[in-house]
Amino acid sequence: MFWVLRAVVTGPVDERTGYLCDLKSIDRMLGDTVIPRLVERATTTNGKPGAVAPALATVFDLAAQGCAEPVSLVSLQLMVSPFLSFTVMEGEPQMVSVTRTFEFCAAHRLGGKDLSDEENRRIFGLCGNPNWHGHNYLLEVTVRGTPDERTGTIVNPPDFVAAVRERVLDAVDHKNLNLECREFASLNPSVENMARVIWKRLEGAFGAARLASIRVWETSKTYAEYTGP
Question: Which class does domain 1-90 fall in?
Fold first, then answer.
């Protein structure tokens, strides 16, 4: 079991040193306050990732108190695998975000129907190839809520995966988006529009958990994120 803990802090930069804070002090705070609690929780729950989420929420206030002014803690994120993470944010320490990552392959052609051929070539370049082109996409779905007191989760993991697969992946994976996805019959399948379309397909799919963000990676350098209307 190898987990990654990320802490984000904010504050003014010290004009004398150019530093925001002493990173060693942040490391000590995490080592003394956060990590032992997470390890204890993982030990008592047989390492079940979802069961650790409440502990992350519990230690957030303690960790925030351990940050020396004027630095303040913004978020704690626990990555339990490359495809699953939990996040607690400042202002809502009892709320937990869960992010799952999915993969799919799809072809598309970018172009505006109201644009001339010259404008399409200038704006979209090779992405407007009339013979299509493809991407290996990464989809990050984040939901937010309060962990259930009995299970420690905000959404049942199999239900999470099933909702994304049934509402999104089955419709886009190994498909030509322009020809086989109904939304893109009239909408340019840019990564920005894909994020919005996927949001609409998943909104309300996770019971008491609220859909918080959709992030679609088109390449390793480019992604679009949508957090709702």
Answer: alpha beta
Q: Are 192 and 218 contacting, i.e. CB atoms less than 8 angstroms apart? A: no
Q: 37-49: per-residue pLDDT in tens?
A: 888 888 887 767 7
- Please state, in angstroms and rounded to a whole number, the distance separating the CA atoms of residues 106 and 177: 7
Q: In sequence order, what E strands does 11-81 have?
A: 72-81
Task: Report, as ranges of residue numbers, the positions in the chain whose pLDDT lies below 50.
Answer: none
Catalytic residue (one of 21, 90, 127, 140): 127
Q: In angstroms, rounded to a whole number, what is the distance separating the alpha carbons of residues 65 and 182?
A: 50
pLDDT of residue 54: 80
Q: Where in the chain is the domain with CATH 3.30.479.10?
A: 1-90, 92-229
Instruction: Point out the catalytic residue in the list 67, 108, 135, 218.
Output: 218
Active-site residue flag, 127? yes
Q: What is the tens place of the pLDDT at every residue in 195-212? A: 999 999 999 999 999 999
105 belongs to the catalytic site:
no
Query: Domain 92-229: which topology?
Result: Tetrahydropterin Synthase; Chain A (3.30.479)
Catalytic residue among 92, 133, 166, 174: 174
